[in-house]
Fold this protein.
Amino acid sequence: MLITISSLLNQTELAETRDALETVEWSDGAKTAGRTARNVKQNRQADLSGSRGQALHELLLRKISGHPVLQAAARPAKFSRLLISETADHGGYGDHTDNALMGRGAARIRTDLSFTLFLSEPARYEGGELVIDMPGYTQAVKPDAGDLVLYPSGTIHQVAPVTKGTRIACVGWLQSLIRDAACREILFDMENLRASLRASLPQGSRELLTLDKSIANLVRLWAET
């Protein structure tokens, strides 16, 4: 399942993010790639270890993790640390698949889902599409700044070369409470149905209560804690 969440960041938050990125250091992005992926990764990554960078990290993680659509679609249990990448001058990130496990100790996660939060307006760079090989088709996406794309970590994907301008994006990974992707999709469909029914049925109706019970019981059945 591939989902685009529009306007996860508003214009004020985008401006604050860009201002903060003017104050951080940047380094070769290949340092954070796996053994195979580093051969096809040509970008720079922001150092978020300083006070301004850490504040930015907390803001972005709070916005991403708290979004209701991401919560419904992903059922997140743990998030990786976020990365912010800058790609320009024909750089990109060739075909690769994400590591199955990331982090160490208590921060270690199984990567069920990946996400890219676009921070640059698409008109400010050429190329730079996120290209994802889904079953039976390939999807290339280049949404507006502030939009987030959520997709399975196990796919082969790439960032197409940026032939003009600069592409800045925030990327991360999460481990879901619901390991099975088909189960997550069923729950997401049911959450969307519940949202629709709440607009037409009275609170406490038997239909809504039955749907609430069914969603809760499926989570009990499928969740890994």
